[in-house]
Design goal:
Length: 224
């Protein structure tokens, strides 16, 4: 029986979101002039809130504004590593570190499943000792440059569960042969929480807290 501990990342392991700060981190180090475009980011977010654009398109536009349409892997990698170092130094819940270590010690395979982009999540996951990452992927051009465009689905909501099931199949794992713990802070992860054997609401949003109480899911506080 495979034992899996699957973690959401933003506001579950981390205290705050990581995507926009990642874009700002890159902009500051590669092209600070792009920060003059930063005031457009709230407007793009408003367009998403008004349902004028999709969540995926929101992410693609913001990446284009602050990084550009493309970035070469050799330019991205050192910046992803320096950003990951910053996240671990300033933005990790103490309780998350304790639980990750407990799950590792108990023999669980550690999997991060997040809507954030693999292009920087992998560096964070490696530092935390995760075995695998399921995340939002980016389109790569023929010459290797990474485009500000999502490859496949944004790893969010129902799509996250589909990507987890695809990951299981790729690794030759049958769901019936696995026990799964899943940790998340947000109600968008309800499909995965329902699917897990041990659903755990971590520092839950109000909607998730109500749902967790109604369904008898464990609620934990990792902020201390």
């Amino acid at each position: 029986m495979a034992m899996l501990a699957i973690y959401d990342m933003d506001r579950t392991i981390t205290r705050s979101g990581t995507y926009t700060p990642f874009l700002v981190h890159l902009a500051l180090r590669r092209a600070p002039w792009r920060l003059v475009l930063a005031p457009l980011v709230p407007l793009v977010m408003l367009a998403y809130a008004l349902k004028l654009i999709s969540r995926s398109r929101l992410k693609e536009i913001n990446q284009t504004l602050l990084i550009g349409r493309h970035i070469a892997p050799d330019a991205l990698e050192p910046l992803a590593q320096s950003y990951a170092q910053k996240v671990l130094a300033r933005n990790i819940y103490p309780g998350a570190l304790r639980q990750i270590e407990t799950d590792r010690a108990n023999g669980h395979r550690l999997v991060m499943a997040t809507a954030s982009y693999r292009i920087y999540v992998r560096a964070i996951a490696d530092r935390l000792g995760f075995d695998d990452v399921i995340a939002t992927d980016s389109v790569s051009l023929v010459d290797g440059r990474i485009r500000a465009q999502i490859d496949g689905e944004n790893c969010y909501g129902d799509a996250k569960l589909r990507k987890i099931n695809t990951w299981l199949a790729v690794h030759g794992l049958e769901r019936r042969d696995c026990t799964v713990r899943f940790y998340s802070d947000h109600v968008s992860d309800a499909p995965v929480l329902d699917w897990a054997d041990v659903p755990i609401a971590v520092n839950p949003s109000p909607k998730l807290a109500r749902l967790a109480k109604g369904r008898g899911w464990l609620i934990v506080d990792w902020s201390r």
